[in-house]
Amino acid sequence: MSDDSCSPSPVPARPLTPAKVTTQILSTAFFTFLVYLAIGIPMAVLPGYIHLDLGYSSVIAGLGISVQYFATFISRANAGRMIDTVGAKQTVMRGMLLCTASGGLLFLAALAQSLPFLSLMLLFASRALLGLGESLVGTGAIMWGIGRVGADNTAKMISWNGIATYAALAIGAPLGVVLDRSLGFAVIGLVGAALTVTGYVLARGGPNVPVVLGEKLSFKLVLRRVFAYGLGLAFGTIGFGSIATFITLYYADHQWGNAAFALTAFSTAFVGARLLFANAINRFGGYRVAIVCFLTEAVGLLLLWVASAPEVAMLGAALTGFGFALVFPSLGVEAVNLVPAANRGAALAAYSVFLDLALGFTGPLAGLIVGQLGYPQVFLFAAIAAIGAVALSLSLYRSAQQRNG
Question: What dihedral do alpha carbons 51, 383, 240, 307 form, nearest 10°?
Fold first, then answer.
């Protein structure tokens, strides 16, 4: 999954009015919204389809979610270089086509339910294409937006892109449940394909932004520069990955209803935090914000661990979303500015790699934990990771103070 960018870009030749800046940001973030709506719609029903309908284990159910993130991970470097060479618009268009193909394969997987192994393979292929497409659109749309509105509006672009991402997930999760129950699992694939075809058509008619010229650093060098910050991002992302993959089965294990609304609570709290604290990073600095975010996330995950009622679990999901909201931009502000502007696409991709890794490994690892210890322990594991991110952020903050002192 790709959330934000914090890197500099050239300011447009003609200064934009605040209203035009907002309009351009929203029109660009809309591409992110469409892709994450296509991602969010199957999120709450996919683990149950694999585990209950096809009859595979919780580990395979977790892997079904994680395939997308592994595909995003392996394509990040290519996405970054594509933006830096052919441009953000073309990158978004290509990603939309991949996501459309993913929806088609998901439809075929549903039709093949009577052949569980074939259905699972088609589903895995669908998830892989969705991950590749998300990598291109998620990275490309953000850089396209920053190219349109300039570096002075980066914070606003960060906030609205994240809002688009998690608003789409908040809408998509319950919508997917409704579609599955009323029209069947196959319709979910068709809806995803329709959304991303629409995104392709809209992107094709959008404006181009110039490619920034300059020396291109190797991806390995860029990755090395942002490694420690990306590691903190990975630790913080485990909480989201645990909720996204196992919250529906966790609720079912407790015989609670309305699990999809826990995802909605997470996403709504995320959006609320972005709206309320959009300027917090500029005021207090990325390190301080990151520390508070990780602590809040840890508290939410611990509530999920000990929850004895669905209301407590929903509160835990909401607190986790509230804390996770500014994790990406808070550390990203400090990380992505370490590279020249001509490498901004590669820097965003390198930093986002750690989000992909965390989401990719969380599914199967959490599945193993479920098999041995039960569903609640997944959230304890995620809380420990968030506390580790607090310690890492404190270390990075002290190192930065020493460099600047």
Answer: 60
Q: For residues 197 and 140, which has the higher predicted lDDT (pLDDT)?
A: 197
User: Given this model, what pLDDT does residue 98 score?
Assistant: 97
- Enter the tokens of residue 374: 């039960």
Q: Cα separation of 142 and 31, whole Å?
A: 9
Residues whose CB is less than 8 angstroms from the CB of residue 13 and which lie 6 or more positions away in sequence, other chains included: none
What is the distance between the alpha carbons of residues 254 and 264, in angstroms, rounded to a whole number?
Answer: 19
Residue 158 has pLDDT above 80, yes or no: no
Q: Is 19 exposed, middle or buried (0-12, 13-18, 19+ CB in 10 A)?
A: exposed
Virtual CA dihedral for 193, 198, 200, 204, nearest 10 degrees?
170
Structure tokens at 298: 């840890």
Look up tokens 């086509």; give the residue: 97
For residue 246 the two structure tokens come to 């196992």
Closest alpha carbon to 45 in 94, 139, 113, 145: 113
pLDDT recorded at residue 4? 46
User: Are 169 and 40 spatial neighbours (Cβ–Cβ below 8 Å)?
Assistant: yes
Cα–Cα distance measured from residue 157 to residue 47, given in angstroms and rounded to the nearest whole number: 33
Structure-token pair, residue 318 = 């909401």
Q: Which one-letter amino acid corresponds to residue 348?
A: L
What integer pLDDT is reported at residue 252 of this predicted model?
A: 86
Q: Which two tokens stand for residue 350?
A: 């390198």
Provide the pLDDT for residue 14: 59
pTM of the model: 0.73
DSSP class per residue in 230-245: HHHHHHHHHHHHHHHH
Asked if 121 and 178 touch (Cβ cutoff 8 Å), the reply is no
Model confidence band, residue 396 (pLDDT cutoffs 50, 70, 90): very high
Q: How far apart are CA 205 and CA 192, in angstroms?
A: 21
Who's near 201: CB < 8 A, 6+ residues apart?
A: none
pLDDT of residue 232: 96
DSSP 52: I
CA-CA-CA-CA torsion sign (277, 282, 284, 290): positive
| CA 120 to chain CA centroid, nearest Å | 23
User: Which two three-digit tokens encode residue 218?
Assistant: 């190797």
